[in-house]
Amino acid sequence: MMGFSMYLFVLLPQLFLRFGLAENPSGFTSLTCGAPMGTSFLEKATNITYSSDAPYIDTGIGRSIKSSYQSKSEQQTWYLRSFPQSSRSCYTFNMTTGDKYLIRAIFFHGGYDTRPSTKFDLHLGPNKWATVSTAEETKSETFEIIHILATSRLQVCLVKTEDSTPFISAIELRKLTSKAYANESGSLQTFLRADIGSFSKQSLRYGSGVYGADVFDRIWLPYNSENWSQIRTDNSVDNDNGFKVAENVMATASVPTDPDAHMNISLTGLHQTSRFYVCLHFSEIQELNPNDTRELKVMYNGRLIIEPFKPISFYTRSFFRDELGPNANGQCTFSLQKTASSTLPPLLNAMEVYMVNSLSQNETDTKEVDTMINIKLSCGINKVDWQGDPCVPRDYMWSGVNCSYIDSEQPKIISLNLTTHGLTGEIQETISNLSSLQVLDFSNNSLIGPVPEFLAHMTSLKVINLSSNLLYGSIPTSLLDKVQRGLVSLSIEGNPGICSSASCATTNKKKTKKKTMVIASVAASIFLILVIVLVILKRRAKLGRYPSSDHDDNNLQQCNNQSSSSEMANNMFTYEYLAQATDNFSNVNFIGQGGFGYVHKGVLPDGTEVAIKQLKAGSGQGEREFRAEIEIISRVHHRHLVSLLGYCVIGTQRLLVYEFLPNKTLEFHLHEKRRPLDWSKRMKIASGAARGLAYLHEDCNPKTIHRDVKAANVLIDDSYEAKLADFGLAKCCLDNDTHVSTRIMGTCGYLAPEYASSGILSDKSDVFSFGVMLLELITGRRPVGKSHPFADEENIVDWAKPLMLQALNTGNYHGLVDPRLEKDFDISEIKRMVLCADACVQHSAKHRPKMSQIVRAFDKSISLDDLIQGVALGDITSYNLDGSSDYTSTEYKEDVKKFKRLVLESQTFGSSDLTSDNA
């Protein structure tokens, strides 16, 4: 007799079809693997609804079988998920401990790639379930197992064992009753499930007939012998016992053609050490004459396993026998024999055979697994080997994790090393669930907040390494006490904000004094700003204001503070929704990292591509304040500004959903892409970015300072239109301090002199940064070098100032312009951009133009002389050319160094980028 897996996918289509979308029975989970997120359909052959597997796995690649095979196979196998990278890839299902499930895994290659011959292992949790081997793209493999859940989590894993790619087509979970298949040891792997005496050549399962379907969706395969005769009844057969065998299955049976013969069934393909369970189902489905009797017994390898009995008319009687195995000769023969008093031959309606799979490897403690999954999701850890159980099997233990293994006990995590993993946010208290943890290494990350008290109460913890993070505050007294007594080794160096308990009081006094001085300077600054504003308004009344050039009909723009707050509430996404859109923020969808956080590409169920930014933790704002700021940003709509589509708030996590621009950033095109931007594209990008910034400064309500204008924040669409990103984020992502000067913002190389020296920000600070970006477009150079943050390096303004003056005086721009352009540029346009850049990077903020003037200069609608506000070219420079300036290049560099140190010492740790190439 053939094994169970050899029958499946051969006996299609089914006899009967049901139409209309059906709701799956309770306890059914039916997944089509690799299908796009949101996929759902009714498979008419079974009347079962299937959905995408995406919510249950965060790795793998969705593929499709050849279209020529789709008409010959059920729809749930049209897709598949392959795993070319991971050594182990796992599906995770949250279940109820103690429940019993029939688990089915289906594999159909279908020619999705050129290597149909594959071999890999299938695991249930940490234990091997089966070896999957496919030789032809037209053949399928199906594996079933009946399993009682020892924990509240079920994991189905694909494990690479050879040089081939694991894949899976469908997963089906079917909840069983506790009375069915009451095995006391191990799980039961399906070897055979036979519909004896079936008059059909097709399999039977849930939804296969108008009536009599299998409520557990077991697949019954027709089986007959040439020595048997088939019988059937049209009467109803009662199947109401724990096994609930399909009524259609019980309505047919086989008997020996020779009424005096035995009914023998031999199993092949079993290993000599195999142990299996057999389940035999009987029902008398013939109307017996008064003098007729049917009585039989069942022998196995010559041994009586079922005492003589009489099948009951039209009622199902099931016999479950365990721990059977082959004899010394490998023989496995069941013999149904009539007794001496029986006038009729033996009868059999259905038969099931299950191999015992002990699944002996204990799973890691549930709390510890939950903790590790929480760390993985909340910290955005995308390690390819962080799949399945963290500790077992040992060959697949998660990197950075070490475990203890004691016989008959669950493995425990004793060491967790996540050094240099880009961790952000505060240290989570869930780590305390790792009750046996001895070593914790979170060094060289960006963790913020205080050193948590709970670390002192983890009794097994011996080594704590939190060095080189952004932690602040005092070390808990209880933890210091354990350190002083030699019970714990604590490494905390490289956290500028950390103080010992003794020194904190002094530090706080200094901070109070410093805040008083800041408040005084702020008040003076506000008074000065008000005076300047009055002067400007008076001047505008006389001379007229330079209008923004972005009021044409081609620009879609809106910045209305009267918009309904419910508008943004409707665009609030759940974390689970965004995790699904990004394959659980997988490495495949990782776009880049910037000052504010990490960005992943996502695809919403309707096919919309989005960019999802996970803000770095550390915001001092509550959820209400954050929502208020986001509502303001969401009202800003402009052709040259990246649109905010929605957001997510979960705990301390903040996520923003933006429109996705596929053509990357200006920084990429200038400094990383091999093929340089041509001059016309550079002009187009400069003009677009200027329009977006002018709109923020002068037409938006409330008016907005960008605070971090740089090439990495200029996104490019397919038409090379520029869109500014990250505007407005500084206020909603940093602390609640009300004065702009206390917020550490910006990227070194783009910093305006007044901000580097005093911390004062204005719209003219944005103008300076924009000028630096224009110099990048002109020269192709980075703002500063890429070495250590405190290195003395010539910045682009220092380098370009004398060359700009020379070029404007001589008309020769070749020493200034990006050599990759190979002199392929328009002289009049390059002159216009150089003049704009020179005007923008003036040292004195009051001598810099407004962005609307830059826009008009690009449009050739104002005189270029107006850009420098009556100051002769070269008289006022960012850093003096003749040594006569009051503010020298050296002083600027020293201020930038102070700025960098201020970032490191600040407890705000906002979104400052200390390198010139941060994306």
From TrEMBL:
Pfam family, one: Malectin_like
Segments crossing the lipid bilayer: 517-537
EC number(s) given by UniProt: 2.7.11.1
Recorded topology in the membrane: Single-pass membrane protein
A cellular component annotation (GO) from this entry: plasma membrane
Domain Protein kinase: 585-862
PROSITE patterns: PROTEIN_KINASE_ATP, PROTEIN_KINASE_DOM
Signal peptide extent: 1-22
Keyword set includes Kinase: yes
Protein name: non-specific serine/threonine protein kinase
